[in-house]
Amino acid sequence: MNNQRWLSQNFFIFFFTWGVYLQYWSGWLTEAKGLSVQEVSFIMGFGLVSRALSTMFIFPFASKYLSNKKLSQFLVTSSLLAAFFYIPFNSFTALFIITMIFSLFYPSLLPAIESSASTLVQQTRIHYGKSRSYGSISFVISVFILSIIIGYVGEKAILWCMIVYLAIMLILQFMPAPDVLSVKPTAVDRSQSFSMRSLWKIKGFPVVMVIVILLQGAHASYYNYSYIYLQQYLEVNTFYIGIILNVAVLFEILFFLKVDYLFSKWKTSTLLLIAAVGSTLRWIMIFAIPNVWVFILSQSLHSLGFAMAHYAFVQYITNNLPKQQLSNAQGLYSALAMSLSAALLTLFGGYLYYITPGLAFLGMTVFTIPAIIITLLSRKVYQY
């Protein structure tokens, strides 16, 4: 089994499903299931809460009893079964319940794959960035393919594409995997010394977690308001908006392709500092110069604000945490940095957007500037 190829394949197929979920799920609930925007917002909002609880508690708990391979098999199977329950139901109550169940399993696949990646990097020394770039590439391909399919058959195809992709992912999970991912956790692995509480006692971990929470949460306005900002405020043709937004993913792909060769020897604190500065510059640019070409230029900074911050966290836990703590760390990261912080900052960004659209992006510097300060003050103290 080629470990690098196995990880690349798993990132590729997961992000194929992730493109469906992030870009089209709300639209599918609205157009195919007939829910109102308010109902969809309510469902997806509580879905984020369910996702956060799952990745923070259920996923780390399950990882103490199941091997990486068995856990991934369980999560994919549960996600696929939950997706089938969407087919016969159209009422708000039923779709709310199904979404809560689906959110307990499907989003946990991301920290599960990331945990497997950290294990493989730690024990077999493969290149994380090279495999992770396949995820970004597949995300773009997935969005492009589904947009074409929807154009021909409508939004009803969204759920069926998700089901087909999950079925393919399930088949891959039952194929041979690296031996280290099939090792079942022992009673020692479940001891208090490897609990989530003990994770916070590891030197440097709390401060690194706070910094990535600030940096990843600061993308809330971009994820939620960039489309309407381009469409309504900068008056960009809808046809070009998707292309413009994918510029960020293009730079993300280029970053992950080269990151292991360029930055693997750099300190985590240096990577986080660059990410925080790059993110701050990005939001200032969009606010200060409300121009479509400046917005496109700012997209290149996604490789720093998002991708470098993500890589820095993976690098830190891989180099500093024992294997038994990787799932705990990935669960916390997914719950706090990728879910709850974004959910809370979306409300803050929405308030600023209604004052003036550009302010929603500038407001994110309220979180990126403290990230710069914390990194500068803590890097010598914790030596990370």
TrEMBL record:
Domain of life per record: Bacteria
Main location: membrane
InterPro entries: HcaT-like, MFS_assoc_dom, MFS_trans_sf
Membrane topology: Multi-pass membrane protein
Residue ranges constituting the Major facilitator superfamily associated domain according to the UniProt record: 6-354
Single annotated GO MF: lactose binding
Transmembrane regions listed in the UniProt entry: 12-28, 40-59, 134-151, 157-177, 198-218, 238-257, 269-289, 301-319, 331-353, 359-378
Places the protein is found: Cell inner membrane
Record flagged with keyword Lipoprotein: no
A Pfam family of this chain: MFS_1_like
Protein keywords: Cell inner membrane, Cell membrane, Membrane, Transmembrane, Transmembrane helix, Transport
An example Gene Ontology CC term for this record: plasma membrane
NCBIfam families: mfs
Name of the protein described by the UniProt record: MFS transporter
